[in-house]
Design a protein that fits this description.
The complex is a heterodimer of chains A (346) and B (326). Chain A has 8 helices and 12 strands. Chain A folds into 2 domains: 135 residues, no CATH class; 121 residues, Beta Barrel (OB fold (Dihydrolipoamide Acetyltransferase, E2P)), CATH 2.40.50.140. Chain B has one domain. Chain B is globular, with a radius of gyration of 21 Å. Chains A and B meet through helix 1, helix 2, helix 3, helix 4 and helix 5 of A and helix 1, helix 9, helix 10 and helix 12 of B.
């Protein structure tokens, strides 16, 4: 041999062990990347714009790292059989330096004296591989999944509520009081002599007033067909007077997790994921129902329909008005249990 | 009510861990592949020919290199380490590494998009890029002074510039005249890529574990509540949060924008510090720098971001500009 550093025996075996383990672990990570993209598992941890990079990354691992490396190692191993072989890629008489480029893992930096502390420390290498196997293992046992997303959302809502003051119940004026300064939009005489009026309050709330021939008038909220609203839009609109005006009175359909405040007053929250599950925040909308609501437990997933209102909350900073979005539900049948399609709102 | 069941805590931890890991992974692959190509094709010392000899202009060029080679902070470290080996001066590398994840088209655009709805897009982009540039340049110069004093002892073995590692043998300067086959080149690229990918992903994984653990104990809403009560705590609180959250620089602007009631100065602090320093980055830095240098970088970055953000805050206050949107 033209040069003295050990290319054979122990370190050669270490080199191939390291390369093969590396290829296997990378293949695992590449496969998991591609598979999580195709089976939708990424939905639990990443926002849509970050899905494609994972797929591309997985393919890049498979092609550039796994495939090319496997071919190269295959050839190196094959060349070992040749009698004149003197270590991978080395011509017998060349002086080793960095341009010799065996790749960095093995000969590349083993030539710089004192530089092989890590690359040839096999126990370090095994620990590395073991740690990299963790995400692969989690994938194999089915993580992430919807149950994990659900539990994490609940945990986050709990943490969020830990330091803030408990939510105050919105007593709110009764429909009768609110109807006092409302404008009459429509008025119809019924066959039985009673009058049905459609009222619109100052805050855009639509109320149906039924005035019988004798006795007290009755009030009920009018719920339209309704459209799906995003928690994010409602929370954003709370900061903007014009938006508040334009939203109020519309019928919204919202889906989220339930958290009880009082008998007729609860919070609906949903996680907002901006980029990935590491940045989720719970967004809240207050729901007010006309009768006491039973049969729904904290953190159940519910679908709610009702009119949008924004109610000023006391206790904000001086001068700053804080509004929260509220859904006024006409009837408790408009609050239904369901199953989440997606834990996160994007 | 506020007590988490073990099941909930574990789920929260795992989902945060997996989210950080898989969000960053593709960008590390990208960085590793680029590193492989650079290592194979970029001739030794080639970059230094285009750089001015003086340190200050060279550092400033390093800081805007991201406009030409856009990378986010996970990938940039891998590429930077190869450039360092190839002879790009350490000061330039530091400037590129710190400013690159902020000063590039993708991140500028995403910052713009995040704040457009709040009507402060122009200010946010300007302040983020401006502060990022200043912090990166000044830190790079401080590192330069330290490098002059301590030399390669600041770096891990794998990051030491090759010119320094190679013996002064002139015949070695020119790359081997033997024409390498394509197969050999691909084999070399894959070797470097795999090495760098495994090396950095390991530390990314460890960083993600730490960050996910930290999230069990402190939530963004708590930091926001804290800083609302104490406006001058907002800046350090947001800096701490960005250190903790380990967000990608392409994405963090959207998170900052969600703190609607926060003053602009605190948001800028969040957006400038995050791409330069967070839990996973510190762990990844250990693969390039020795402890002394990491401490220098961290101290310099934290101090500068803090001081400059306070200055921004005071300027806003003095001019009576609205620091909070809406």
């Amino acid at each position: 041999m033209a040069h003295s550093h050990p290319h054979s025996g122990e370190s050669l075996r270490d080199y191939f062990t390291e390369q093969l383990l590396g290829i296997m672990v990378c293949a695992g990570l590449g496969f998991v990347s591609i598979r999580m993209y195709t089976n939708g598992m990424l939905n639990y941890i990443l926002a849509k714009p970050f899905h494609l990079p994972v797929l591309v990354g997985g393919i890049a691992i498979m092609v550039v790292i796994v495939l090319l490396r496997a071919i190269a190692v295959w050839h190196e191993a094959g060349a070992l059989q040749a009698p004149a072989y003197d270590g991978p890629e080395c011509s017998p008489d060349h002086v080793h330096d960095t341009t010799c480029n065996h790749g960095t893992s093995y000969p590349g930096h083993s030539h710089d004296d004192g530089d092989h502390a890590h690359s040839h420390d096999m126990s370090w290498m095994f620990v590395t591989m073991l740690i990299l196997v963790v995400p692969i293992t989690l994938f194999v046992i089915g993580m992430p999944n919807s149950n994990m997303a659900r539990l994490a959302a609940i945990a986050e809502a709990k943490l969020e509520g830990r330091n803030s003051a408990p939510d105050q119940e919105i007593g709110g004026a009764s429909l009768r009081d609110q109807a006092k300064d409302a404008t009459v939009e429509d008025e119809k005489k019924q066959a039985d002599g009673s009058t049905v009026r459609t009222l619109k309050t100052q805050t855009g709330l639509r109320i149906r007033e039924t005035i019988p021939v004798s006795g007290e008038p009755k009030y009920a909220l009018i719920t339209a067909e309704g459209t799906e609203f995003r928690f994010n839009d409602l929370n954003d609109a709370a900061f903007d007077e014009d938006k508040r005006k334009s939203y109020e009175g519309q019928t919204a359909i919202l889906e989220g997790r339930f958290k009880r405040i009082a008998d007729k007053d609860f919070t609906l929250f949903r996680m907002k994921m901006t980029c990935c599950a590491a940045d989720t925040v719970p967004l809240k909308v207050r729901i007010v129902v006309p009768q006491a609501l039973n049969g729904i437990n904290n953190f159940d997933w519910v679908r709610v329909k009702g009119q949008i209102q924004f109610i000023k909350m006391p206790g904000g900073k001086a001068g700053a008005e804080t509004y929260i979005p509220v859904i006024m539900v006409a009837d408790i049948t408009d609050v239904r249990k369901g199953e989440p399609k997606n834990e996160y709102e994007q | 009510m506020s007590q988490l069941t073990p099941e909930e805590a574990v789920s929260l931890f795992l989902i945060k861990f997996l989210a950080i890991l898989w969000e960053a992974m593709p960008f590390i692959v990208l960085g590793a592949v680029l590193a492989g190509i650079l290592e194979e094709f970029l001739p030794q010392q080639a970059i230094t020919r285009f750089l001015p000899k003086q340190v200050v202009p060279a550092v400033m060029i390093g800081a805007v290199l991201g406009l030409v080679f856009p990378m986010c902070e996970c990938g940039i470290l891998v590429v930077m380490r190869r450039l360092l080996r190839k002879g790009l001066p350490l000061s330039c590398c530091i400037a590129y590494m710190l400013a690159g994840p902020i000063i590039n088209a993708v991140v500028i655009f995403s910052t713009w998009a995040a704040f457009e709805g709040h009507g402060i897009a122009r200010e946010m982009v300007g302040l983020r890029v401006g502060l990022g540039f200043v912090v990166a340049c000044v830190t790079a110069l401080i590192v330069h002074i330290q490098y002059v004093k301590h030399g390669n002892a600041l770096l891990t073995d794998i990051a030491i510039p090759q010119a320094a590692a190679t013996l002064p043998d002139d015949s070695e300067d020119a790359p081997a005249p033997v024409k390498k086959t394509l197969g050999k080149r691909l084999a070399n690229i894959s070797a470097t890529s795999m090495h760098d990918f495994v090396d950095i992903t390991l530390f990314l994984t460890l960083g993600a574990v730490l960050a996910a653990t930290a999230k069990l104990f402190i939530s963004p809403s708590e930091v926001e509540a804290l800083s609302r009560e104490q406006p001058f705590l907002a800046i350090p609180a947001m800096m701490f949060l960005s250190f903790l959250m380990c967000l990608c620089s392409e994405a963090d602007a959207f998170v900052a924008a969600s703190f609607t009631k926060m003053h602009i100065s605190a948001k800028v602090a969040f957006l400038v510090l995050g791409p330069m320093l967070d839990i996973k980055l510190v762990l990844m830095y250990t693969r390039v720098f020795r402890r002394r240098l990491i401490l220098t970088i961290a101290t310099s970055v934290v101090t500068l971001v803090f001081v400059l953000s306070i200055v921004v805050h005071l300027v806003y206050q003095a001019n009576n500009w609205a620091g909070v949107p809406g």
